[in-house]
Amino acid sequence: MTADELKGLIRTVPDFPARGIQFRDITTLIGNGPGLRAAVGQLACIAREAGAEAIAGMEARGFIFGAAVAVELQLGFVPVRKPGKLPVETIGIEYALEYGSDRLEIDPASVGQGQRIVVVDDLIATGGTACAAAQLLRKAGAVVEDAAFVIDLPDLGGAAALRECGAAVHALVDFAGH
């Protein structure tokens, strides 16, 4: 499936969550079997070429694509969680949001020292969450040099910010604007 065909499966919802925002809704993509299979296959190809030894995904939509990519490649999946969701001792990282801060956590035992992990998520916007995830995985001992996304919103600068955090950015499609 081409990038344009995948893009055609992603619904744009105007004025959500606020006026002037063009929300890129992957629900229509994941609801289309051939489209979902194509997106997962293309993300898996990126991860394979990057030498992935495991896949990490951020809660929540990164779990959808990241876990599917891990299955496709027969690799383990590292869930990057919101605070308080893991039942074991965790390590975490605080990161800045536009209006405040947030935190990500992982089980450090889920990461092997020097393990090459590719971060997979549905969308990169400002890059804050993806950069925090990469830094957290590195703190646990992983090598994180690549991240793959279904959608890039280049006008928001996230891909550039993630590259500054030391990870190559790969996206299947991009949408101009917000």
UniProtKB/TrEMBL annotation:
Belongs to the purine/pyrimidine phosphoribosyltransferase family. CDD domains: PRTases_typeI. Keywords: Cytoplasm, Glycosyltransferase, Purine salvage, Transferase. This is Adenine phosphoribosyltransferase. Catalyzes a salvage reaction resulting in the formation of AMP, that is energically less costly than de novo synthesis. It comes from Qipengyuania spongiae. GO terms for molecular function: adenine phosphoribosyltransferase activity. Pfam families: Pribosyltran. It is an enzyme of class 2 (transferase). Homodimer. Residues 52-143 form the Phosphoribosyltransferase domain. It catalyses: AMP + diphosphate = 5-phospho-alpha-D-ribose 1-diphosphate + adenine. Pathway: Purine metabolism; AMP biosynthesis via salvage pathway; AMP from adenine: step 1/1. The gene is apt.
